[in-house]
Amino acid sequence: MTKPTAHPLTPVPREPGLEELLTAVAAGGEQAFERLYDRLAGPVYGLVLRVLRDPAQAEEVAQEVLVEVWRTAARFDTARGSGLSWVMTMAHRRAVDRVRSAQAAADREHRAGTRSAEVPHDHVVEEVTVRLEGERVRRCLGGLTEVQRQAVTLAFYGGYSYPEVAGLLRVPLGTIKTRMRDGLVRLRDCMGVER
Amino acid sequence: MNPEIHALSGAYALNALGKAEETEFERHLSGCSACSAEVRGLRETAALLALDAAAAPPPDLRARVLAAARHVRQAPPDLTPATRVEQRTGPLPRRARAGGRTGPGKRRPRRSWPVRLALGLTAAATVAAAVLGVVAFDGLRDLERVRETQRELVEVLAAPDARTLRRPVTSGGTATLVVSRERGRLLFAAHGLPVLPEGRVYELWLMGPGGARPAGLLTDDGAGQTLPLLTSPEADDRHLGLTVEPAGGSAQPTTVPLLLTELPGT
């Protein structure tokens, strides 16, 4: 038999963007969802784990988020932002919701002392683009003032509200609000995020 | 733009506002396009921060997520402009956690709904396609075409008058035909056909009172089977043939048929 030519059933190999994958997932594309999982499970799980610290809870929340991506893919709209931003916002909010619920807060307090031991530092996803983004993120974080950097990272990776961050850093509320915004704006410009 | 409330955009993008302030800020956002644009950019920035935290999930999470998704009905798109504003500023339904509270107007994800008919059909088509030896398809541009093909495959396979024939090919291998006269469709697939020398192809023919007409070239799936080929026999087409032709196919058969079979329903 000959090699496949221009047959209508011949697959065309190509790496679709997250936005395209989401569009296909919205149409019930199970295979597209598998590919989306392979692209996003690492970032989603990693972020949720960073916020929650507890691998068991992180796994549960990551699963909720990824299934929610499947469920609500039709509501993703490229006009409102990138696919990555849509999914990661969802993941972060879920993690933060969990962390702020009373039970989780108690758990977290209980774990505060052992927290560093629980973070699996070796679980770094071996994915080149992710690593490159990570390097850029760290470089840009290094360009912030100390308060900006702490305000942004405590809120984002720590899941703390801005009054909590103000308390942790012993800085007035109004100052923290401004530092969070200034810090993010500076990061945005450093990372070349399109506006 | 109110500078006081506008200063909250950073905390908002980091999900660092309390419930009351968040609601207030979202109300403000819905009427402030400059704020929405800023929040969008800051959220994109936060998404990149998220990449820095990427970690390998437990290996069994994949199977659990895919299995769970299979049993979750997908939500339709939001069409109302009012919801769109809300979606843009806060794309997630916050779920009640531990405390059992649910935000106003937000819905819990509905789980365990029966799988939609459409999904079921797609799954059936996927199974059918797999049985027929369709290779895994990739590429979004092709997705619609693939879904259309699956729909067409199911249409033939599920037709009330569908007849299935299995016929040996004289040079080796077996051909399978599914014919629906009602739908005027014929599905052809074969396995075990000998590999042809470079520059030769297998060509399918439909034969009616007017003689043989080309019905398509077979494509190797790379695993010893052909991709399924759908064709549309006329009501008075009585036979189907398979020959070897020069690459690109011929207008009329030029070699002795390796398969010549009578079509059912004639």
Give the secondary structure arrangement, pairings included.
The complex is a heterodimer of chains A (195) and B (266).
Chain A: H1 18-26, H2 30-52, H3 55-72, H4 83-100, H5 102-111, H6 115-118, H7 128-142, H8 146-156, H9 162-169, H10 173-191
Helix pairs in contact in A: 1-2, 2-3, 2-4, 3-4, 7-10, 8-9, 8-10, 9-10
Chain B: H1 3-6, H2 9-13, H3 19-30, H4 33-51, H5 61-70, H6 81-89, H7 117-131, H8 140-157, E1 163-168, E2 174-180, E3 185-191, E4 200-208, E5 211-217, E6 229-231, E7 239-246, E8 259-262
Antiparallel strand pairs in B: 1-2, 2-3, 3-6, 4-5, 4-7, 7-8
Helix count of chain B equals: 8
Tell me, briefly, the overall form of chain B: elongated
C-alpha Rg of chain A (nearest Å): 19 Å
Q: Regions of chain B with pLDDT < 50 over 5+ consecutive residues?
A: 81-120, 130-139
The biggest beta sheet of chain B is recorded as:
4 strands, antiparallel
- Mean pLDDT of chain B equals 77
Characterize the quaternary organization of these chains: heterodimer
- Structural class by helix and strand composition of chain A: mainly alpha
Strand content of chain A: under 5%
Write down the overall geometry of chain A: globular
The succession of helices and strands of chain B, N to C, reads HHHHHHHHEEEEEEEE
- Give Rg of chain B in angstroms: 28 Å
What does this structure look like?
The complex is a heterodimer of chains A (195) and B (266). Helix content of chain A is 69%, strand content 0%. Chain A is built from ten helices and no strands. Chain A has helices at 18-26, 30-52, 55-72, 83-100, 102-111, 115-118, 128-142, 146-156, 162-169, 173-191. The N and C termini of chain A lie far apart (52 Å). Mean pLDDT of chain A is 80; it is low at 2-14 and 112-129. Chain B is of the alpha+beta class and 266 residues long. Chain B has eight helices and eight strands; from the N terminus they run ααααααααββββββββ. In chain B, β1 and β2 form a beta hairpin. In chain B, α7 (117-131) crosses α8 (140-157). Chains A and B meet through α1, α2, α3, α4 and α5 of A and α2, α4, α5, α6 and α7 of B.
